[in-house]
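If it is no trouble, might I ask you for a protein's amino acid sequence along with its backbone structure tokens?
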Amino acid sequence: MFNPSADHPNRDAAVDWVPRSLAAFLLLLFLLCRIAGPAFADGNLLLNGEAAAGTGNWPSNWRGVSLSAADTGKIFLWLRRPGGDSELRVELVGPGRAQWIQAVYLPPGWYKLSGQVRTDASTSRVGTALIGIQTADRGRTFLFLPDSANQPWNSATLYFRVGSPGETITVVCQVEGSRSGASFRHLSLYKLSLPPPAFAKRLDLPGVRLDSEKLAISYQEPVGSLWTMIAVMSFFAAISVAGWLTFTRSA
């Protein structure tokens, strides 16, 4: 009796190899997506994060606050650019500390806060620009510096976790110093569908000591890009297809 498998011994091997290759490719795809970072569960939770809307000379949903013991002068500016990138700006005409702030209630889970910061380059204006969060229930403030300081606009990113049952978080864009100024733009706050990568530095709010009144954090956002991930996946997909075709032709 004619037995196709006997005449073509490599055919069964090719057929068995296809599901194994597919399983390996799907596993690789999962790992690459995990390394690239978790997906966002919702849209931007900050209202007017692009500072595009407002009335008169004031941006909607944002509030300017002075934290100086002696109010020596501050200027809150909304630099609106229709069709371009609008900015929230703070200028201090003397020693002090001031913030743009926005409060938002967050359910339990992991979040990613990010934005861009530009500080004055003039040596006559000395100050520090930070982005961070304040917790309403315990009055703690967590501020962090931009990831780098060698570009006109520098990105800043913070991963943090909110515990049960949730809490109100105030997003802070702060300038402090003497005759200093800074601008903030592209501010976003996203809830993550998965925890951030294990190698990312994160802030676990429920685990922070209650006596930590202020914490300065500076770190780099996990590297990697969507195009790199797509290129790597395409490369391994091409290898899988080439191997399958080779086994099929040899059969």
Observations:
- The chain has three helices and 14 strands.
- Residues 209-228 have pLDDT under 50 and may be disordered.
- Residues 38 and 194 are 5 Å apart (CA to CA).
